[in-house]
Design brief:
This protein is mostly helical. The protein has 2 domains: 71 residues, no CATH class; 122 residues, no CATH class. It has 9 helices and no strands. Helix 1 packs across helix 2.
Length: 207
């Protein structure tokens, strides 16, 4: 049974997420860097716009309609999005995106019934999955991506506290939008690195 408390949390999270996405898009389209204070104010204002119903013509807030289309996002996705508006935001390393993409490629076909193995069932308290997630967080820390350690830790705490409707750990760690982002970001990052390398070689070429 979904309690009003969980519904309120889900609505607040989606309102903030929608606001952050719009701010990120505005920053990408802008030719200048938007100050953090302006971004924060925009998130708060837009978050309120999505959180409250906009009149008699709409029975539910905008965030509720968005959530009806997208479903509930994972805690990892939300924290990655929310942290992107912070000025000192640490870029997500390729070492996180590649394992994430590989997990998604294997996970979703199997979870949808392709084969006899169902990894989604592991999310209901499997010790093996818990150990794997903890080890992955430790690897992120050893690699210097401290933000990733915090994000994964918060996701596990949220799962343990039943923060969302789902009792499955996978729903706190992974969702289709996160998987698609990782799959798109990998070739983009590789292309950018090759381009930077080519430009560097051109700059230091004799003559």
């Amino acid at each position: 049974m979904i309690t009003p408390y969980l519904q309120l949390i889900a609505l607040l999270e989606m309102s903030l997420t929608c606001a952050v996405v719009l701010v990120i898009l505005a920053q990408k389209l802008s030719s200048i860097d938007i100050p953090f204070s302006v971004r924060l104010l925009a998130v708060l204002l837009l978050g309120n716009l999505f959180f409250w119903p906009l009149g008699m013509s709409m029975e539910l807030p905008l965030a509720a309609y968005v959530r009806g289309v997208t479903g509930e996002l994972s805690v990892v996705t939300m924290l990655l999005l929310w942290s992107s508006v912070i000025p000192s935001n640490q870029k997500t390393p390729l070492g996180f995106k590649v394992p994430l993409a590989l997990i998604a490629i294997a996970f979703y076909p199997l979870a949808l019934g392709l084969g006899m193995l169902d990894p989604y069932a592991w999310g209901y308290g499997s010790i093996g999955l818990l150990i794997a997630v903890i080890l992955f967080a430790i690897i992120c820390g050893l690699a210097g991506w401290i933000k990733g350690v915090w994000i994964i830790s918060f996701a596990m705490i949220a799962w343990a506290a039943h923060w969302h409707e789902s009792a499955n750990l996978w729903d706190y760690l992974l969702d289709p939008f996160l998987a698609i982002w990782a799959l798109i970001a990998i070739p983009k990052a590789i292309y950018q690195k090759r381009r930077e390398k080519a430009q560097s070689g051109y700059l230091f070429r004799a003559g």
